[in-house]
Protein: Acetyltransferase (GNAT) family protein
Amino acid sequence: MTYKKLLYSYSQVYFENDRFYHLKDETRPTRYYSNYLDYKLLPSLVSLKEDLLYLKVEQKDYPTDYGMLFFPEKVDLPGEIQNHLRVADFHLEKHLIFTCSIDNLSLSKKAVNGISIRPLSVDNRKCYLEYKYQQNLAYGKTYADEMLVFNEKHLPEPGSTVYLAFDGNQIIGDLTAWDYGQFVEMDDFSVKENYRGQGIGSALQKVASDGFPSAILIAEEINRNMYQHQGYEEVSYYWTALRSSDRN
Structure:
């Protein structure tokens, strides 16, 4: 199993053919990462054009007009495909996959006095839903409302554990840990701006990674130095293409 396939092993496939998996979630129509084509093999330019038409029809009733494509792991895009996508207003992005032994993970050793780390529970669920809603408003009220309905029904998602950082009764950070056997992916990570630089993010990661041999994550090139400084090593990559009037 490739790293990319491992990282998306909890995803539900809507449709599959010999070229791609189609991920589609009509309960979250504005969320790009819930609605996309994931290619098994690099498509020809002719096939790519056909697939984009297919995706457009599938999403014709969505409130926003967008398209997202995932390409196979460790495959660079030929010039003709890059050119076609750019002319069609797609933004291309390279996603890096990093891994690190938990024993080698270099995290801040600052003491976080007065801050507690707790898993999501019945007692703090309502507070967390409001915290995430306020975060998601940065992407528009439609998106925030859509995610609130989903989160109320589905959090925590199968395979995941949500960890919260509290200052008293106030949530000031969160992290979702995904269990991939020997790997833990620490995703959807945030700390409130006025609490950053105090070791709270490291405290969340330490709790979330406890009991796992290794950590795995996906990052953009801009964050390479930060993760390498923490001890992560690049093991793979893949490309995505996104067309949207308001990429977020």
Summary: The two ends are 30 Å apart (CA to CA). Helices lie at 3-7, 45-58, 79-87, 125-136, 141-154, 200-209, 224-229. The longest strand covers residues 233-244.
